[in-house]
Amino acid sequence: MDALINSLTESELELVRSTERDALAALDEDGLLELHDRVRRARNKYVKLYRRQAGAQVAESGGRGKANPVNQRNRDKAEVIEDALARVSRQLAVMAKASAAALKQERLASARRERNTAPPRPATARRKATPGDQRPRQAPDSPGMRKRQASSRGAGARRQAVRDAR
Known about the structure:
Number of strands: 0
Largest sheet: none
Structural class: mainly alpha
Radius of gyration: 36 Å
Helix content: over 70%
């Protein structure tokens, strides 16, 4: 792995070094997001390159097994970048979780400050409800509901007609 890292280009090496623990610790959440985006794009580039060249090599070599060693360097590069992406993703998840916890604490503290702290009102005796005070039941008026009600009414009328016929 070290031999491959030493053979990376300067920009690739800089990208991999920027994903080391010390470099990641110095970044804030926005910086991590930008780095994650850069590393993900690099990973996609090398994976695509590996797949494209491996597919072309199969036709020339006559099989996937024979084409495998020719494209080893591209596969290893993609793996190094994938490991770097995993490091950045883990650190980003840690930062996002901490940020979410801080926002939650802030929201809860704000809700505690805003809640009603007035003394409770004295309890008053409730008056009894009279039948005239009650509202009639408001059933939802939809075509399906009307159909069910009409069906139920019709079934009741048919039952009553059978009884009356006896």
